[in-house]
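Can anyone check this?
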Amino acid sequence: MSQDVKRIHYRSLGEQLDAWMSAHLWAQVIAGLILGLGVGLLFGPDLGWISRPLAETIGNWLALPGQIFLGLIKMVLMPLVASSIVLGLAAGASNPESLRTLGTRLAIFVTTTTALAATLGASLALLFRPGRMVEVSNIPVPRLKPDVTAITPDPLVEIANAAPTLIAKIVPENPLAAAVSNEMLAIVVFSVFLGLAYVTSDHREKMDPLVRVLEALLEVSMTVVKWAMYLTPYAVFGLTAQMTAQMGVHSLFTLTAYLGTVLLGLFLLLILYLVLVGFLGRISPWRFLKAVGEAQLLAFSTSSSAAVMPVTIETAVEKLRVPSSIASFVIPLCSTVNMAGTALYQATAVIFVAQIAGVHLEIHEIALIILSLVAASIGAPGAPGVSIAILSSIIVSFGIPPHGLVFVLGLDRILDMARTAVNVTGDLAATRILSPKQSELTPEQARHS
């Protein structure tokens, strides 16, 4: 083969590869992950080629596309969620009974899977005891005030006292203030009430202008999301490079027992979702995984179920053939309340910290921890790092010395990525399972139903 023929051949292969990569977002995401890991290792603490302050500065610049991507999504997230839920409910206005059935089944699915996930996480932590494998001699123990250490509040009393206030706060007093504060659960609740008011109204024709405004708002929001998706490969590359440059690889190996316990639990939870979607969603697990792979990758790399919500809705409609009205209603709700992966992680982390501190937890205390985590996980914002605040409050409530949190914080980012991917998988599994028509629809029918 002559040199000219070889050049033409290689150019043709390159053009085909570029075309294939351009048509497959998941391939671009994987490429961004791999390149991000490689670049992050070059600037990370393991090689020590550059100083930590310089590595942090480089990491911040590398993560700039990712921050812009997340900013664009967050900018339209509130109108996107509100309009999706209201329009999803409005689409079912002709059959209010089906809406009640859908809401009831969704509540059962979320509470059951979240409780099973938290129980699984606690069981694995008790079985493998990862906290006993950590060297604690050099842990900086935080200084606590004497009155805090002298009196440990009764967790049951604390939960009983706080429950009425927490339940009352579910209904937002000021939806605009909730939107400014990025309180996703408040916006979801407000949107549900708005949609139900339309469904139950005897004068819907008076509310039709509001529906048309929300349709326009949804279209504008989705257009901005499409713009943001062009940044996806660069966002994944930058966020992964920044994380790897900050953490390094060595920190992962020092806590392999804890890391492995959480990842094993998340894997088993993923298997549970596949079994449920196989039996109740009437779709093979392999076909389901192929359909949701792109959303999983994006969730893994961004650590935000809210950020990938537009992709999740599109996946449910286009690939899982869920009616658009159901996907637009269920996915925003699930992105807020369906946090089984987070509950599993938190249950494992609480017992891990207790084991490091040498605190023995009785069965009834573990059961109460699971109950607390199920309640706390439902409604946790779908954004990076929010689980740490919940985790810290649970640990303090049960009188566990918090110095083991230093290890949990060190691995939170990588585990946040994994549990977000599982949470999004659960959202899509719920949407498929709760869809009454399931595989009867074509993608075109799903978009307009």
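Reply from J.R.: I decoded it. The first helix runs from residue 3 to 23.
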